[in-house]
Automatic annotation (TrEMBL), chains A, B, C, D, E, F:
A Pfam family reported for this protein in Swiss-Prot or TrEMBL: PfkB
Record's keyword terms, sorted: Kinase, Transferase
Organism: Polaribacter marinaquae
Protein name (Swiss-Prot/TrEMBL): Sugar kinase
Stored InterPro entries: Carb_kinase_PfkB-like, PfkB_dom, Ribokinase-like
Gene Ontology molecular function: kinase activity
Annotated Carbohydrate kinase PfkB domain residues: 1-310
Entry's family note: Belongs to the carbohydrate kinase PfkB family.
Amino acid sequence: MNKIITFGEVLMRISPLGNKKFIQANNVEFYFGGTEVNVGISIANFGGDVKHISCISNDFIGDTAISYLNKFDLDTSAIVRSGRPLGVYFLEVGAVMRPSKISYNRSHSSFSEILPEMVNWEKSLEQGKWFHWTGITPALCKGAKETLKEGLILAKEKGMIISADPTYRSALWKYGEEAKDVLTDLLQYSTIFIGGVNEINEVLGTSFGYSNDEFTEASKLLIEKFPNIEKVFDKIRTSINSSWHKIRARMWNGVEFKETQDLDITHVVDRIGTGDAFAAGLIHGLQKFDDYKAMEFGAAACAIKHTYLGDVNYANESDVISILEGNTSGRLNR
Amino acid sequence: MNKIITFGEVLMRISPLGNKKFIQANNVEFYFGGTEVNVGISIANFGGDVKHISCISNDFIGDTAISYLNKFDLDTSAIVRSGRPLGVYFLEVGAVMRPSKISYNRSHSSFSEILPEMVNWEKSLEQGKWFHWTGITPALCKGAKETLKEGLILAKEKGMIISADPTYRSALWKYGEEAKDVLTDLLQYSTIFIGGVNEINEVLGTSFGYSNDEFTEASKLLIEKFPNIEKVFDKIRTSINSSWHKIRARMWNGVEFKETQDLDITHVVDRIGTGDAFAAGLIHGLQKFDDYKAMEFGAAACAIKHTYLGDVNYANESDVISILEGNTSGRLNR
Amino acid sequence: MNKIITFGEVLMRISPLGNKKFIQANNVEFYFGGTEVNVGISIANFGGDVKHISCISNDFIGDTAISYLNKFDLDTSAIVRSGRPLGVYFLEVGAVMRPSKISYNRSHSSFSEILPEMVNWEKSLEQGKWFHWTGITPALCKGAKETLKEGLILAKEKGMIISADPTYRSALWKYGEEAKDVLTDLLQYSTIFIGGVNEINEVLGTSFGYSNDEFTEASKLLIEKFPNIEKVFDKIRTSINSSWHKIRARMWNGVEFKETQDLDITHVVDRIGTGDAFAAGLIHGLQKFDDYKAMEFGAAACAIKHTYLGDVNYANESDVISILEGNTSGRLNR
Amino acid sequence: MNKIITFGEVLMRISPLGNKKFIQANNVEFYFGGTEVNVGISIANFGGDVKHISCISNDFIGDTAISYLNKFDLDTSAIVRSGRPLGVYFLEVGAVMRPSKISYNRSHSSFSEILPEMVNWEKSLEQGKWFHWTGITPALCKGAKETLKEGLILAKEKGMIISADPTYRSALWKYGEEAKDVLTDLLQYSTIFIGGVNEINEVLGTSFGYSNDEFTEASKLLIEKFPNIEKVFDKIRTSINSSWHKIRARMWNGVEFKETQDLDITHVVDRIGTGDAFAAGLIHGLQKFDDYKAMEFGAAACAIKHTYLGDVNYANESDVISILEGNTSGRLNR
Amino acid sequence: MNKIITFGEVLMRISPLGNKKFIQANNVEFYFGGTEVNVGISIANFGGDVKHISCISNDFIGDTAISYLNKFDLDTSAIVRSGRPLGVYFLEVGAVMRPSKISYNRSHSSFSEILPEMVNWEKSLEQGKWFHWTGITPALCKGAKETLKEGLILAKEKGMIISADPTYRSALWKYGEEAKDVLTDLLQYSTIFIGGVNEINEVLGTSFGYSNDEFTEASKLLIEKFPNIEKVFDKIRTSINSSWHKIRARMWNGVEFKETQDLDITHVVDRIGTGDAFAAGLIHGLQKFDDYKAMEFGAAACAIKHTYLGDVNYANESDVISILEGNTSGRLNR
Amino acid sequence: MNKIITFGEVLMRISPLGNKKFIQANNVEFYFGGTEVNVGISIANFGGDVKHISCISNDFIGDTAISYLNKFDLDTSAIVRSGRPLGVYFLEVGAVMRPSKISYNRSHSSFSEILPEMVNWEKSLEQGKWFHWTGITPALCKGAKETLKEGLILAKEKGMIISADPTYRSALWKYGEEAKDVLTDLLQYSTIFIGGVNEINEVLGTSFGYSNDEFTEASKLLIEKFPNIEKVFDKIRTSINSSWHKIRARMWNGVEFKETQDLDITHVVDRIGTGDAFAAGLIHGLQKFDDYKAMEFGAAACAIKHTYLGDVNYANESDVISILEGNTSGRLNR
C-alpha cells in the first residue's frame, strides 16, 4: 500500500544548448517530461515507489522514453503502446527579458489515442496509496479525460489519497468540453488541491485577488463547494526576469494559513517542471511531515529544480532537507 | 524562363551523431529535408534558379526551416504557413549489417493541411522552365495530390518540362486512393520518368525483372502507354552493407539504352537524399548536356551525396564534373 | 523605395564555447558579423528589406558567409568577391571582472581590396530608402573610405535618409588619414547621428562631459556645425561587470532632450553587436514611431541582443514591442 | 523460473570521441560495462529477464551506474554498495593498424570489496534459470572468487544451467592463486563452455592448435575431464586491422562439430563487448533454438555489436534474426 | 635562484558540462589539478619559473597529465612515474542553492606510492627560491608526508622561503597519524602561513572566532608558537549561494593587520582552485610587492579564477594588475 | 649534440567535425600544424630533443600555439613574436570521391614578417645535430628564404646533418624568385633528399617518369649535380579514394635501390601531415637504424599518422616498431 500513481502524457522535449535559438543551432538535446511524469520521477528520486501510466509510441522513440522512465526506477509495466508518434515539444530557452518559447507537436500524439479500455485500472492501482493528476490530461482529449475519470473513481473507492493540480492552460481544451465543467467533475474525487487563486477562480467562476487574505477566502470557498478537498497549497513565483526568480508557498489546510519565506533563485538553469517539483515535494512531504514542513519541502524542491537541466527534478530527499536546514550557500560537498 | 519549380513537404530530421541510437544519446542534430526540396536545393547548388512551394508551420521551427531554404538561395516567397507543426522524422544511422531506421511524425503535419486554393499556381509558375514532382506528395493526403495536380496541369499548359520520380512507398497512401490510379493520372503530364522497373511495374501492373533488357522493355511499354513520357532514367544501388554501396545508372531515352560504370562508395557518410541527388543531377544535366552525360552527371551527383551529412547535396557543378573527369582518388584540393 | 542599404566588412568570428579560453579548448564556434551587417540583419529580422554591400572572399569561407546572410533573407546580389581571405576575429568571452578579449586578423582581408569601381552604386541604391554607415569602414583603408563616400554622395542625391554611427576606434586608422578629417567629411551627407559625447568630441575636437546637459550642449553644437544632421541618439551602457550591464538611451532631436529608463541585464549572454542592435532598432523605429518611441525600441533591441549568442540580434519586432509593453519578467511563452 | 543471473564488476569506461587520444581531447564520453553485465544487458535487450549482482560505489557515480542498468530494465535489487570508488577504464580507440589501448583503474574498486557474506545467494537465485560467469571475476580478488563459488554451488544445487566464459587475462590474477587451479575448480559447476583452444589449453595445460580438428579434439578432452560440461562454443575473430574484422563461430556439442560462415564487418564502430554479445546471443539462443542456430544467433549478435558505440549490445532479437535471414545489406528501415 | 617548487598529487578531474549531473550526461570534460600544482601553474602563468614534483601514472593518462603541465611550461623533469593509476575526482557543478559535489578515487593512486627515496631533493631544489606545500599532501599517506618533510628540511637548509597552506580536510588523514601533530611538525620549516582561524585552531588546539580581532590574536599566538612563521594571510569567502560569492583577504604580517575590500563575483563560472589562486597570487606578489599589495594581488587572482573553467588560473600578471587598478567593469579588450 | 632543429611557419587549422562543410556547421575544431613543426613534434614523440624556430603572433592565439608546442615538450625558447596574426588554414575533410579542400589565410601572417636578423642562429643551433627544412618556407617570402639560408650555412659549417623536403607547391612562390633557382641554391647545403621524381624534375628541369628505374636514374643524376646529397628517399601514395590509401617508400642511398611493401590504410582518419610523419620517421630512423629500416620506420610512421586527427603524429617509437614487427591487425592493447 505504498505505490504512488501518476497518469499522463510523456513528451519528448527538444531544445538547443544554452540560450541558442533553433535558427542558430543544429545541435540540440532531448529530454522527456510531461507534468505528471515529472511529478512521478521527482517522487521516485525522493525514494517513493512510483508507477506511471501512459500511452507511448511503439517505435524507437517510445522505447527511449520508457528506458528514460526505467532509469529512475519507475514502474513502467502498465504503459500501453500506440502506433501514433510520441508528442514532442520544442523549447528555446530565454534569458533576462527574453522569455523562453515552446512550440508543441502533441495534438495527434500516441497519448491522444488513449481510451478507458486500454488501462487496467484494477491492476494498475494494486498497492496504490496516492493518485496524482493534473488539469493537462483532461484538457488533451476526451479519451484522456474519461480514462482519468475511471482511474479516479476506482482510486477513491480504494481510499487512496488523490491530489489534483488543475493547471489551466487555455491553448488546450479543444475537444469540445468546458474546462470548468470537467475540472469540477474531476475535483469531486480529490483530497489535496495544488493550485492558487487563478485555478480556484477558474473552477468556481470567482475573481479572487492574489493577497494572502483573498487566497484564504478562496480556499475556504473551494473547500465549501468540494467538501472532499481538505487542503489547498499554492506556490508563488516572483520573476525578476527569465534568469532570476523567487519562490515561496502558502497554504490553507482547513485550519490555518501559513506561508514560507522566499527562496531566491539568482541564476535560473531551467524552469521547466519546477511547478511539478513543488507538487512532488509536497506529496512526498505530506507522507512524512506536518503540513507546513511538507509545504516547505515542496517549495525547496521547487527551488532546487531550477538548478537542473531538463524537465525532472534530480534532487533526492537529503538534498532538499539540507535546504530546509538553511544550507543555501552552496558549500562544496566533498 | 529559367525557374525550376519543386513542390512538396519539408521535414525536420532529428538524429543522434554518428551511429548512436536515441536510447544512448541526448545530443542530436537536426537538418531539414524532404524528397522534392532536396532536389531543389541540390539544383540550386549546381547554379539553378529554384523556387520551392510548400506549407510550413507558423512557429519558430517553421521559421528555421524557411531560413534553411534561404541559406541555399531558394525562392521561398510562395511558401504558405500553417497552424499545424512541421513534419518530423527521427533517424538512427546504421553501419555494416545494421540498417538505418526511420520513425516518422508527419501524418498531421503542416503540409497535410495544404489545399489547392492555398497555392497561387499562376504566380508561382511565372518564369517556370521545369517542374519536378515525386510520388511522395500525392501519397500523403488528398489535398496534396489535388494541389499537385493543379500545378501540373498549368505547368503542362505553359509548356514546362515535367519530371516525375514516382517513388512508391507502401507505408504512405492512407487516405483512400490507389497509388496506381493516382500515379497514372499524374504521369499524363510528365515528360521525364525517373524510376526503375519497380516503379514501372507499380504503374503498369506489370512484373518486369531487373535485367537491362527487361528494363528496356519496361521503358518502351511505359512510353507506349504514356506518350508524353520521352525518357526513362534509372539509378541502381548495389549495397554491400549499410556502409558500402555502389551506384550506377541506366536509361532508355526512346532511342537507345545506355548505362554508366559503377561508382564505388566504400565509406558511406549519409545515404539519405542520394536518390534525390540523382534526380537533381539529371535535371540539371539535361539542361546542359546530352542524355548520356546528363545521366552520368546524375550518377556522380548521387555518389558524391553519400559523402555529405544531412539530406541535401552540397556538391556544386564543378565538384560533380570533376568526378566525371575521373578525379575520384580524393586528391587534396588546396 | 523601401530598401535599407548597409555597407561594410563581414567578419568571421571564432570563439570557444562559454567562458573558455583558446588555450583550454579545441572546440570553437564560428559566427559572422561586422558592425554594419549586424545592423542589416537585425533590421531584416524586424521585417525590413535590407541589401548589404561588401567584398567577400572567393572560397568556401566566403560562400558560407554569403549563405549566412541569405539565411536572414538579406539581398546579397551586390556583394563582390575577392581573392583575399575573409577577415577573422577571435573572441574569448570574459565573465564578472574578466573582460572579453578580441584578436583581429583583418588588415589584409577580402574587404581591404574594395575600390570604388567594384561597386555599382547606381544599381545598388535602386529602391533605396535608408543608408547606414559606421566609422569602422572608413577607418579600415583608403579604398573602403572612398567607396563609402561615393555611395553617400549618391544616396544624398537620391534623397535617402543617411544614418551615421561614427564609432571611433583608435587601433584602426592606419592608412594615413586622420579620423577627424575623414569623419567630418563623411558626416556632411548624414542626417541621423548615432553616438555620444565621445564621438562628438572626436569629430568637433571638443571635450564635453557625460552629463545629460553636456550631451545636449554637444548635440546642439554638432547640429550647428553639420546642419544636415537633424537628430542625435546616444546609447549608454553601465557595466557592473562583464556579466551584468544596464542600458539606457538619450536623444536630442533638435527640439527636446529625452532619455529612457535603464534596462537591467542581470545575466549577459553575449554583448557583441549590442550597439549595432541599438542602431538597427532605432533605424527601424524611426520609420514607424515617433523619435522617443523609436529610441525606446532601439534601447530594448539593444537590451534583448545581450541574450542571444553571436553578433546578430535574433529578436523580431514583436519580441521588442513586448519589452516596451513592460513584459520583462520572462514569462514562458507557450 | 526464467531469471538469468549475471555476477561481476561494473566498470565506468571513459574515452575520447572518435579516434582521438586523451592527449588531444578534453571532451570524453562515459559508458558502463563489464564483461558479465554486458552479457546481462544484451540478454535483457533480447527480451530476457536478467538480474545482475555486483558491488557498486556508494556515491553519485554508483547511482549513475545503477541507473544505467535500470535503463535496460535489469533487476538491480541485489546490488550491494561500497565505500570504495567504482572501477574505471580509460580507452583510446585505434584505427587501421593502430590498436586501441586500455588503461585500468580497478584494483581497489568497489567490487574488490565483495565478500561472500555480502550476497544473499538464496534470495538472489530465486526464480533462477541460468547463471553466467566469466574468468574475469575470479581473477580480480579472493573475495570475488569465493563469492562466485558460493553462487555456483547453490545454482548447481538448484539445477540451473551454468555457462562459463573462462577468458584468461594474464594481467589480472594478482592475489596469489593460480588461474588454472581456480578455473578448474569453478568449471566443475558449469554446463556450457564458451571459449576456444586458448582457454582449453589454459585449463587443461594442453597445447592444441587452432584448426577445426584440434578444436574438436580439445573440446572432447575438456568434456572428458569435466563431465558436467556438455557443449563447447568458440567465436573466432579474423582481424584485417583495427577497423575491419570478420567473425565466425564453431562448436562441439558432444555430438557434432559445426561452424558458421564468416560475417564481414568492414567498418568497425566499437569492438568492446563483442565477445560478451556472442555469449549473450548464445545463451539467449540456447533457450529458443537448436545448438547450431543458437550459435549462429550468437555470431550474428557478436557481429552487429561491432556497430554500436559503448560496451553493450543494443540489438533486439528481431535485429539479430534479420541478419540470420540474410539481411546484411543494410537496407533502410522506414 | 628563482625556481618556485611545488610538490603534490596531480589529479584528473572529470565533470559533465555546465550544471549537469552524471546521471543525465554522457559527455564529460576532463582537466588536471591538485592544490599544489594549481598553485604552480598559476605562478607560471604570472611569469614564474616553476618546477612541480609528483608521482604520476605510467600510462597514457599519466602522459596526458604531464603534457598538461608542459603546456604551461612547468618543469616536469623531476616527476617520477608509477604503475598505479592517476588519482581521479568526479565533480558535479551545482548552482544557486545546490552545492557542487565531489567524489574522489585517489586512495590507491600513483601518488600514494611516493616514498622519500623516489625524489632526488638535492637536484630538485637546485636554483630553488621558494617552496610551497599544503596540508593535503601529508594527509594522504605516510610516504607523502615523509617525502615532503625531507624536502622541507633541505629547503630550509638552503634558505628557501617556505609557504604553508595547511588546509585541514577531515575526510583525509586515514593512515594513522594525527593532523595536529603532523602539521605542527611541518610548520616548523615554514615562514609564510596561508590560512585562517580554522587552520590556526586546528594546529594550536584553540577556538578563536572569525572576527578581525580574533584573527589577529590567533595569528599572534601562532607566530609565538612557531617563531619561524613571519606572516599570516587569510582569504575570506562570503557565499550568497553556489553561483554568487564575494572574496576578500586579511593579514597579520607581524606588524600590522590589514584587509582588502570585497570583490563581488556575481556569476561564478568555476570555484575549484580559487583558494590555490589566492596562494599563487600571494606568493607571486610577495616577490614583487609589499605585503598589502601582495595580498590584494592574491585576492584579485582568487576572484578572477572564479571566471575560468577548470582547476587552474589562466590569468596572467597584467590581468590581475588590471583588477587592482579598478578595471572590474569588464570593458571589452580589443 | 643531439638537438633536432626545425624551422618554419606554425599555422592554425580550423575545420568542422567529421566530414561536414563549413556551410553546414558552426562547431569547428582547431589544431596547430605546419610542415616543419609537424616533423618536429613527431620526432619529439619518438623521443627526440627538438627545437622549433618560428615567428608567431603576439596575442592569445600565438600564446595558444606556443602552449601547443610546449605540450609536446618542444624547445620553444627561440621563437620570436610578431604583431601580425598567426596564419590560418580552413579545412573541409572529404570522403570517398570527394576531395578535402583547404583555404589559406597566411600571406600576411606573423611568419611573413621574419627576417634574418630576428633569429640568433648561433645560439639556436647550439647542441644541434640535425637541421630539417622544406620547400614551403622559401616559397613563402624573401625574408623566410634568407633566414633559412643563413641557418643552413651555419648548420653546414657546424657539420650538422641537413635533410631537405623540397615539396613544390605552385600556389606559393609569389614574391618574385623562381622555385628552381632557390631550391637549387638551398639544396647545396643538404645531405638527405626527401622527395620523388616530381621534386627532382622540378629542381633539375628533367622529366623522369615514376618507375623504380627512372626514380633510380633521377636520384643518381641529382646526386651527381649535388654531390653533398648522399641519399634520396621517396614516399609513394596510392589513393583508391579520399578514405582509402596505400603507402610505400623507396630509396636510392648511393649504393642500392630498395622499396618497402605497401601498407594498406583502409579507413583514413586524417591525411594531413602524413608526408611530414614520413620525414620525421625517416630522420629519427636514420639516427638509429640502417637506411632500409629507417625508410621502413618512416613508411610505418606515415601510415599510422593517417589514424590520428590533426596535423601531428601522436605515435611514439614503440607504436611504430610494433607495425614493423607485423602487428597491423589492431589487437586490443590492455
